[in-house]
Amino acid sequence: MAPQTTKPVGTVGVPALLCALTGSVLAVSMEWMGFLNEVTASLAFFWEKEPFFLVDPELVSREWNWLVTFLASWLVAYFTLASAQLWRRLLVGIMAGLVLVGFMPSLALWGILWLPIVSAIAVLWTWACAILYGSQHAMPCEAVATEVEPVEMKVETIPFPTKKKAK
Fold first, then answer.
1. Is the Cβ–Cβ distance between 11 and 133 less than 8 Å?
2. Segments making up each domain of the chain, as ranges
3. Bridge partners of residue 20, in order along the sequence
4. Fewest 10 Å CB contacts: which of 30, 79, 82, 167?
5. CA-CA distance, 62 to 30, in Å (whole number)?
6. What is the full per-residue pLDDT of the chain (167 aa) written as tens digits?
7. Helix 62-81, helix 86-108: angle, nearest 10
8. What are the C-alpha distances in Å from 65 to residues 53, 116, 118, 127, 136?
9. Contact 79, 88 (CB under 8 A)
């Protein structure tokens, strides 16, 4: 008889934090070393020309962008690890990508130029790490639910007391 291998039991909290730190450190270090300068400049130029004409926009500072990057990465990792099946984990990543892309034009309406390149790289890497961890571990949300036997009870109703009519 061949030995069966079982997946180790996984948790959500600490692995989500580690996946988020991994993705955030990767993306922030890529920005800090200047690997994303050309992509950032071309995306900023895209918003400044026709049909958007975003002239003299207010830029989001790097530190706030890094904070948003970490928070978005942590949320994506947490929701990915808390999802039961692969299709749900894929859906979490797709929705995170749509939200990140959707924030650019929303903030541009207020004259704020937010370039989510760092956030997108961090979220993508975090999501990939979380999917890999979730596929290698038995997550708590994937536990087989045990059936509870129904309990039969006899319930008697008691009539509602009413006031006696005074004569």
1. no
2. 13-142
3. none
4. 167
5. 13
6. 566 678 788 888 999 999 999 999 999 999 999 999 999 999 888 888 888 788 888 888 889 999 999 999 999 999 999 998 889 999 999 999 999 999 888 888 888 888 889 999 999 999 999 999 999 988 888 777 666 677 788 888 887 777 776 66
7. 160
8. 23, 8, 8, 18, 32
9. no
